Prior knowledge:
By secondary structure, chain A is mostly helical. Chain A has twelve helices and two strands.
Amino acid sequence: MIKTIQNRHTKTFSEYASPELFKMFAADKKNVLIRNELASRNQALVIYILKKYYSARKVSAEIREELIQEGMIGLLSAIEGFDHTLGFKFSTYGTWWIKQAINNYLINVNPIIRVPGHIKAEQSKLFKELKLQNKDIADIADMTDEEATDYNISKKMLKSIKCAIRSKHITSLQAPITHQTYSVESTVQDCISSDHNSLDPGEDSGREHILDKRIMLSVAKETLRSLPEKRKLILLLRYGVIDEHDLCANNNNTRNKTK
Amino acid sequence: MKKKQKKYITLGDGGGCDFRRMAKIMTTAGYKMNHATARNQLMLAVESLLMQFSSKLKIKLSAAKIKEMVGQQDVQDNLGDVLYLAHKELENEKTANNNNAGITAGGSNNLKATRRPRPRRGTRT
C-alpha cells in the first residue's frame, strides 16, 4: 500500500533531503508518511540522548525499551512542532522534546505516592543549588521558611518538597519480598512484627495474619451466639473451653432463677 | 459414605472431652444423647463455623469441601484457640451487660423476665 502511494510520486521520500521533507510536512501536516520518514531519519537522536542518561547512571537497564518508546513519542511531537523557517537545526529543537518526554516518564514511573511534575522540577532546582554550595541534600528537612526564600522558594513549595522527599522512603505494604531461604513469596505486611497486635499477649504470633485472626474471632463469636445451646455446649466441651463443673454450675444457676 | 469420612478425630492436649464423656455430661445437663449424637452435633457446629469463616474471609468453598474439611484433624485442632478467646469475650460481655442491667434497671427482677426457660429433661431442642 505504502509502495503504491510512493510510486505515484516521481521521487520516494527517502530521496528527499531533510529540509525539503520538513517543508513538505509543513505544507501537509496530516501526511503520516512524511512524518514517519522524518522520525526514522532522526531516531538515532533518541538513542544518543538516552546514552547520556545511562552514562550518568540515572536509570536502570530494565526500562531501556520503555525510555526509547517515550523518546520516540517526544520525537514525533517535535517533528509536528518544528518550524523550519526559523533556520535552526532540527536536532536543536528535537533534543528538548525528547528529554522532556523521557524525564516525564521517569517522574511517573511506578511511584507509590505520585509527586506532581512542578514540585519535582522545583526540587531538582533546589538540589542543584545546594550542590553548588556544597551543602547536603538532607539539610532540606531542617530548612526554615526564611532560608527557602534565599532560593526563591515559597513557604508552600518548601512544604511540598519536604513531603516529596519523605514519600521516597515509603514502602507499600503490598510490596513483594522474596525470601532467601524459603521459596515462598511474601509481602511487607506479612513480615511486620505483630507483638502489639497479637490477640493473645502471651503468645508469640510471629508472621500470623492478624487481620484474618481478628475476623475469625468475630465470626466465632457470632457463630457461638447463633448456635443452638446444645451444639454450643458440645463444641465448648470438645475443646475443653468449659468442663463438667462449669456446666453443672450454669445449670444450677438457671434452675434457681427459674424457680 | 466412606469409612474415612466417618472417622472419629482425636484432639491434642487441650483438656477436651471424648464423645462418650461429652454424651454423659450432656445427658446429666438435660440433653439426652449418646456418643454418636454428640459427634454429629459437633460436626454440624464445626460445619456452620467453617461456613461463616469462608463467607467472611471471602474464600470460595463448596458445601462438599466444607464437609471434607470438617473431618480433618488439623482444622479441628486449630479451632481451639479461636473458640477459647471467643467464649472468653462473650462471657466478659455477658457479665458486663448483667452489671449494667443491675445498675440501671434494678437488677435480678428484670433479668428473670427476659431469661428463656430451661428445656425440659429429655426433650430434643
